[in-house]
Amino acid sequence: MHTMWKGTISFGLVNIPVKLHSATENKDIPLRNLHKECQSPVKYEKVCPVCDKEVEKDDIVKGYEYTKNKFVILEEEDLEAIKDEKEDKSVEIVDFVNLEEIDPIYFDRSYYLSPNEGGSKAYSLLRQALKDTKKIGLAKITIRSKEHLAVVRIYHNTIVMETIHYPDEVRDFQEVPNVPEEDNVVEKELETAKMLIDQLTTDFEPEKYIDEYRTALIELIEKKKEGEDISTAKEPEKPDNVTNLMDALEKSLDKSKKSKKKAASSKKKATSKKKATGQKKKAT
To answer: 0.70 exceeded by the pTM?
Structure first.
């Protein structure tokens, strides 16, 4: 299992060296956008709409838009300074609480914690203490320059850390539109609903739930592969400096010819006008 991070779990004077591993993985089937005409992958380029040109990585800076089209520019040095200051490699447990006190809306991502070298005994100590007290640790950790709240708890025989949202990141439920203030239900309908819930109540067995759409998509892809309903993307032509030079010369030559024709036409018109003016004066 890939190690994402190495550091310590700390509570009081106890420090446990640990490794962090992602506990979940995205199983979505990645689909590329292709050009319908030639089935080549479509490129997405960073383009400046004002300069109308592609922007290189070195020409991009970070900015915070505090009002429409007004930005505070943040230099990499400023961001690195904050990162170095905040990125302490530790899961600092600041409190112990009961799991049922935290509503699931706060939970974000899950990570497994394994003991690093020399940390097995202290890891086992924390695990047993959490089991016996039925408590979870409330901690702070910085991952990729973002400070997170997290809970540290036991999952089977492994310590798990789950990042949770800060209170100001959870939207106010009172802002949800059209939610009725009071329950206005018919008693008979309520009893029927309760009976239906009772009939459908069962033990949670996660293995019996599958992503039916993903399964069907995989089957469709395999069928198309077996039936050779596939396409091969064409390799984009590499720019040829000689060809490009010839193109540039030909375009320059065409432009030069057009300029000469335009100049000759203007000169001819000017001569004709001068001649007509002279003949008019002579007639007078």
So the answer is: no
Provide the sign of the torsion angle of the four alpha carbons 55, 57, 61, 62, taken in this order.
positive
Per-residue pLDDT of the chain (284 residues; tens, 9 = 90+): 889 888 888 888 888 999 999 998 888 888 888 888 888 888 888 888 888 888 988 889 889 898 888 888 888 887 777 665 555 577 889 999 999 999 999 999 999 999 999 899 999 999 999 999 999 999 998 877 778 899 999 999 999 999 999 999 999 999 999 888 888 888 999 999 999 999 999 998 988 988 888 888 888 888 888 887 677 766 666 655 545 556 666 666 676 666 666 666 666 666 665 555 555 555 55
Say if CB 111 and CB 21 are below 8 A apart. yes
Query: Is 125 strand, coil or helix?
Result: helix
How many Cα neighbours within 13 Å face the side chain of 42?
8
Domain 5-27+59-170 has CATH 2.60.120.200: no
176 touches 117 (CB < 8 A): no
Question: Are the beta carbons of 91 and 9 closer than 8 angstroms?
Answer: yes
List Cα–Cα distances, 136 to 50, 53, 151, 152, 255, in angstroms. Answer: 53, 53, 6, 6, 76
So where are the chain's domains?
Answer: 5-27+59-170
